[in-house]
Amino acid sequence: MSNLKxxxxxxxxxxxxxxxxxYCNAGQLRNPPVxxxxxxxxxxxxxxxxxxxxxxxxxxTNPDGSRTGRRGDILLLNDSGTYYLEVCVSxxxxxxxxxxxxxxxx
Length: 106
What we know:
Helix content is 36%, strand content 24%. By secondary structure, it is of the alpha+beta class.
């Protein structure tokens, strides 16, 4: 009987966590904190995450060949109701973007 209670408690905790995750990441992230022991790579990594998370732009013109970006920049392209997630693949900057169509089905 105690195994059943433990299993039920585990399932409830997992479901509660999954339910609350949608609210945990809503909105804008704060700037990354400055930690004295961080290396330059860690600082750059945190700044890149912050920049990418907070700056998802929606555009209606295809950025490939016409928009300069840094490698890893992300855009949401709305092409007459069809959405594409566009990623800049130029190194380190340029106008080469690759996209993937988004759909309602998983």
